[in-house]
Amino acid sequence: MTADFDVLIVGGGPVGAALALALRGSGLAVGSIEARVPHAPADARPIALSYGSRLILERLGVWDRLADATPIQRIHVSQRGGFGRVELDAQQARLPALGYVVDYGALAEALGRALEAGDGARAVQATASAFEAGTDATVVRFTAGGATQRASARLLAVADGGALPVARMRVHDYGQAAVTARVSCSAPHQNVAYERFTPEGPLALLPAGEAVALVWTTTPAHARESCALTEAGFLERLQEGFGNRLGRFSSASGRAWYPLALKVAAHIAEPRTVLVGNAAQTLHPVAGQGLNLGLRDAWELAALLRDCDRARVGGPELIRAYSARRRFDRTGGILFTDMLVRLFSNELAPLGWARGLGLAALGAFPPARDLVVRRMIFGARG
């Protein structure tokens, strides 16, 4: 069977677009299927990109398009009503920044524009509906313009968790939801990100321009109620939950909420098919690991494909290599975020003392603190 593409990417979000850009100039025939309309209204959800992700985006020629990215110079971690805290500092880590805050929509737009700017993947606005992996290629069926079509590829790379039922997913519902908003405060944030753990979940405030971006984990009922409050009522509730470290909160725009669950694919590599980004794993937003892990998925897969003989694209050797290469980093990211949620989202007194001692010890022992910083920024290979 002669394949239409060497690599066909399903999902044109940031991870899928990053994979397509990373394969530019590789000599491989790359295609992309994305259901969303190009340049749709911006998604204002705040995203924390690690410094490691900045390096990837620089190599892809995208970073300079993110002019509004706000650097994070310090991260202040504490628990509400308990002792112990730790501060992670970019200068101590010998980095220009620990990370950067951007809107999800701005990142997706920058990657999309970069793809359009040169010869890259052949993009089709379509909805993928089914696939069938064969010995030499995978056939994907999709709907475009009301008509059902098909395309074949030596390798199918699925980058959108909702696009195709590719793998059996293990799902754990945290019973939590995240409230996001853009909040103005009376005190300057000084490029400090705050992660305050509460019994309902972490409350994060990230520097975003002159304002701060809120990612507030709570129960679904409280999330729904918070988004229905008047602006004054919402700000009062946020003030009570966070305190006065940033002065008084004066406005909140773009409030939204979404449920939180851990979703993990049993296998990220099957015959002629690989998973990247949230098709492989969807993480809790605590510590901002999800998208950064997905960008590393795309970068590592592209590196393997660029070094692979064209005839072996999608073959058993590449499938095994990708699975092995991502195992340590992926497992580490999943366990790290899940542990933080389970350890800090409760009111058990013994755990409160243990959490406080752990935070205090981390702040007092620089080698351990530096290890945590490097793992958060560069993943398990950092």
Can you walk through the features of this model?
This protein has 382 residues and is an alpha+beta fold. The protein has a domain at 5-43 and 57-68 and 101-169 and 265-342: FAD/NAD(P)-binding domain, CATH 3.50.50.60. The chain is 33% helix and 34% strand. The chain contains 9 helices and 19 strands. It has helices spanning 14-22, 51-59, 104-116, 220-228, 231-242, 290-306, 316-344, 349-364, 366-378; strands spanning 5-10, 30-34, 46-50, 70-72, 74-79, 85-89, 99-103, 122-125, 127-133, 138-144, 147-158, 169-185, 192-198, 201-208, 211-218, 249-265, 269-270, 273-275, 281-282. The strands form 3 sheets. Strands 1, 2, 8, 9, 10, 11, 17 and 18 form an 8-stranded mixed sheet that branches. An 8-stranded mixed sheet has the order 6-5-13-14-15-12-16-19. It has a 3-stranded antiparallel sheet with strand order 3-7-4. α1 packs parallel to α3, α1 runs parallel beside α6 (290-306) and α6 (290-306) runs antiparallel to α7 (316-344). The model has no long low-confidence stretch (mean pLDDT 90).
